[in-house]
């Protein structure tokens, strides 16, 4: 303790002495004592040409001796230095002409160097590089504690200094939340992922990206230390990457990035590529594909017409799986029965099950209507369509009637009438029930058109048909169904087998709601307005009577 006080006292005395000499004599600090007066030195003839003091003494009479020492000018500029942790700090202090003046370094209010000497010699990371008119302070292996304001000063009356503000950039490090990098939530719950900053200066930007895909809302990137998803679905499952960057290096440090796997548990959900596969009995390339989304993974079974294919004795096909893509191949040479039928892809996990049906048939597909729904004639309408069939179309059959707004016949259908099977009892109504039994029960008559005309082959297994309806009612809506016949029989009606059209001027029907529904949107608006006016009138009469009743009450 006493030693430190003595050193500081000596520093102060030296500084006061230099300042005093500069103030009184206008001289810089001299480093060699020999430059000053020495009593033992014989200088009697040094200032005279002949060495004789009397010879030339009069030649300088009347002249005043002038000694000029110019204050150095600082060449270095003030700077802000951002140094990575572990790098080298170099702070220059350059003047035009030091001329014996002294350079001093300060950090904050503490002096750290004077001329070419460090005040603390135990700091091995700090050193001075001294050259002519230049002094450079060097600090190796920079640490956060090295940050601060450094000032280089010159020992002159007039302040001459340069300032360097040093900031140490610390590589960021983050910790994932959850710490194990795994988060499991149920579908519909809230999921929150965190990326907590452990260290890093200046404060880094934290960004989130999703591995190999975008965020569910389509964004490529999100920012912030935490991201939260409300009511998650299976589409939120995936690997999320959080990274912290403050520019420490071009390549992020391993500690600056973390991965979090979000797993959303849910019951199975199934997508099928096709619900109706057109093929021929001898086609060798038939396959059924279903995509199963489930977490945890689901057990998948295949059924044909309600029978579990795993329990069938005969060979039924080849089952394969690639990730969540399940495929059932139906090679003709291996099958011992017809490939035609309704196949079910059934998936089950601990949260439930799901099933999707695919019909494999040689019958023609559903028609693709080319005609518009709005007719241009008052009593006629031209209908045009195309269908796909692996074998030639023999004939078309049309059924039509006036459209009463009822859409119950468009409910989901299952081909029970063909194979005597459906996996969902609540949807067990057969085609015959929805089209024939229901129509008879409701006293609805469909007009059948047998002679539609010869099918037209368009190539690529596509066949077209045309028919013109005559004798239709003016401004009336109709519904028509088209089925196609090939060597395997007539096609099965589906929702896409129906077209709703109207003759010229027919008001478009509103959303399905039965025969009693309003069919014209304009009429609905008009009726709504009338009801509103009547309601306002009734309420006005009520308030009028109530006010009159109150006016007859005796005053209290």
Short description:
The protein is mainly beta and 556 residues long. It has 4 helices and 33 strands.
What are the key terms here?
4 domains, 556 residues, single chain, Immunoglobulin-like, disordered C terminus
* Overall mean pLDDT: 79
CATH top-level class of the largest domain: Mainly Beta
Can you tell me the number of structural domains? 4
Q: Could you tell me the strand content as a percent range?
A: 35-45%
Span of the ends, CA to CA = 96 Å
User: What is the 3D shape?
Assistant: elongated
Just name the CATH architecture of the largest domain: Sandwich
Radius of gyration: 48 Å
Report the helical percentage: 10-25%
Q: Low-confidence spans: pLDDT under 50, at least 5 residues?
A: 18-63, 412-434, 511-524, 549-556
Number of strands: 33
Give the biggest sheet.
8 strands, mixed
* Class based on secondary structure composition and strand pairing: mainly beta
CATH homologous superfamily classification of the largest domain? Immunoglobulins
**What fold name stands as the CATH topology of the largest domain?**
Immunoglobulin-like
């Amino acid at each position: 303790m006493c030693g430190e006080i003595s050193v500081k006292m000596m520093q102060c005395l030296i500084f006061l002495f230099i300042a005093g000499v500069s103030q009184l004599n206008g001289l810089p600090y001299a480093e060699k004592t020999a430059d000053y007066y020495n009593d033992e030195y014989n200088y009697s003839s040094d200032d005279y040409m002949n060495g004789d003091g009397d010879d030339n003494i009069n030649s300088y009479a009347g002249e005043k001796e002038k000694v000029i020492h110019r204050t150095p000018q600082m060449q270095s500029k003030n700077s802000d230095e951002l140094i990575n942790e572990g790098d080298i700090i170099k702070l220059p202090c350059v003047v035009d002409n030091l001329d014996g003046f002294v350079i001093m370094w300060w950090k904050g209010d503490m002096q750290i160097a004077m001329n070419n000497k460090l005040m603390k010699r135990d700091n091995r990371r700090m050193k001075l590089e001294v050259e002519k008119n230049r002094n450079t302070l060097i600090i190796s292996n920079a640490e956060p504690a090295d940050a601060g304001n450094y000032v280089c000063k010159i020992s002159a009356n007039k302040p001459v200094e340069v300032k360097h503000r040093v900031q140490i950039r610390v590589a960021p490090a983050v910790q994932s939340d959850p710490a194990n990098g795994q988060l499991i939530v149920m579908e519909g719950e809230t999921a929150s992922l965190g990326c907590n900053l452990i260290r890093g200066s200046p404060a880094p930007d934290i960004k989130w990206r999703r591995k190999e895909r975008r965020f569910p809302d389509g964004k490529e990137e999100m920012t912030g230390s935490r991201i939260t998803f409300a009511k998650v679905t299976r589409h939120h499952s995936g690997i999320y990457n959080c990274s912290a960057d403050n520019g420490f290096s071009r390549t992020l440090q391993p500690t600056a990035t973390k991965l979090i796997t979000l797993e959303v548990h849910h019951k199975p959900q199934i997508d099928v590529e096709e619900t109706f596969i057109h093929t021929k009995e001898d086609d060798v390339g038939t396959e059924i594909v279903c995509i199963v989304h489930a977490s945890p993974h689901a057990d998948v079974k295949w059924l044909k017409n309600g029978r579990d294919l795993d329990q069938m004795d005969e060979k039924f096909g080849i089952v394969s799986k690639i990730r969540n893509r399940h495929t059932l191949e139906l090679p003709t040479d291996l099958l011992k029965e017809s490939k035609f039928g309704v196949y079910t892809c059934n998936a089950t996990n601990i949260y439930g099950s799901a099933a999707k049906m695919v019909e494999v048939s040689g019958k023609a597909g559903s028609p693709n209507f080319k005609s518009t729904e709005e007719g241009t004639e008052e009593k006629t309408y031209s209908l045009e369509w195309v269908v796909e069939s692996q074998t030639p179309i023999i004939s078309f059959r049309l059924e039509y009637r006036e459209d009463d707004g009822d859409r119950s016949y468009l409910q989901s259908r299952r081909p029970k009438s063909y194979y005597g099977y459906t996996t969902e009892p609540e949807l067990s109504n057969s085609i015959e029930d929805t089209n024939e039994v229901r129509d008879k029960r409701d006293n609805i008559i469909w007009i059948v058109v047998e002679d539609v005309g010869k099918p037209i082959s368009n190539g690529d297994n596509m066949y077209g048909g045309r028919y013109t309806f005559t004798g239709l009612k003016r401004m009336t809506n109709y519904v028509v169904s088209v089925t196609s016949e090939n060597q395997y029989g007539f096609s099965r009606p589906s929702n896409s087998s129906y077209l709703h059209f109207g003759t010229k001027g027919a008001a478009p029907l509103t959303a399905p709601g039965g025969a009693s529904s309003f069919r014209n949107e304009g009429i609905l608006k008009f009726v709504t307005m009338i009801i509103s006016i009547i309601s306002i009138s009734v309420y006005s009469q009520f308030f009028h009577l109530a006010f009159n009743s109150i006016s007859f009450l005796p005053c209290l």
